[in-house]
Batch of 2 targets.
Target 1
Amino acid sequence: MIQIGNHQFEGPFASTDRLQDRSGVYAILDRRNDGKYYVIDCGESQAVKTRVENHDRRTCWIRNSAGTLTAAVCYTPNLQQAGRMQVEQAIRQQCDPVPSIQWVRSDESVLIQLVDVLTGLVSSRVNGTAPPDSAKARLAAQVEERLGMKLDHTASSEKKFNIFRIKPGGRW
């Protein structure tokens, strides 16, 4: 057993063989040379073992580990997803599993790839850099059509989504 934040977790386990496909909150720990365990990620799942074994951030855990990766779990048979998410959030606040911003290659994350595409799309539309017959211009037109508005710079008072044109020298 290991205490993480205010919760008792089973483990840490060096292998997922000891995890079960039950609902719970898991913590990915890095056992370093000083003998201490550091939380590098945490989450919740209805099927902990499957989630940890197939996690989309697994390569990130490996790349950012300074010691031995292990997993610990707090099974929560009496909690629904909302309750598990509260436990996860408490652990994130207490243990700060993301102490710094890490570089992530976009080919390792579909969401980052989507952000790259959308950022490039908006930038090319606002700056007028995409040729009119290009795929980027056609996609921008489709996004504008679905949004019901032009992709253009907005006032800072705009709700939900702002596009700022930033000029060198720190002015908007």
Target 2
Amino acid sequence: MRERCNTLDDNCNGASDEGAPSEGLCPAQVNSLCTGRTCSGSSCATVNAPPGTACGTAGAVCNAQGQCVLTPESVAFARDLDADGFVPPMDCNDDFAAVRPGLAEVYDARDNDCDAQIDEGVSCDDGNACTTDSCRGAPGCRNRPRADGTPCGAGSICLAVACVTIDVFGNGFEP
């Protein structure tokens, strides 16, 4: 087998890259977005990508020192458009401040916490026995009041969206 510039002993003679072609990349030794390894004679050498080569996130390019940097033209991309303290790609919706990493998920058909899941682990139950709770997709939860007089527990009924205990002595209601 012919030796290739890949830091492996392709011809099983105990040496690697000897007599390898002097052209082409050494894929096993790429070490950053803007630097790589190329064959130089019979060995590999570090080379920088040409300045201006795209790298990393949108708007970033390689500089002459082999570093991936944002260009002055791309600085607008890194601005926090919704002023929520996060920029793309961490902020998965930079047009809406109610969407950012670490935010609590709510039922609204959005990925509020930027974890690539929509409305996970969210309940529309408001904890009030005098409302009927339902999830409605994008508009969110609906918590409709139950009719006054609807039972809401032992000896209790709903009254003005509150569960009140019926006074067993007939004197009225107890909150």
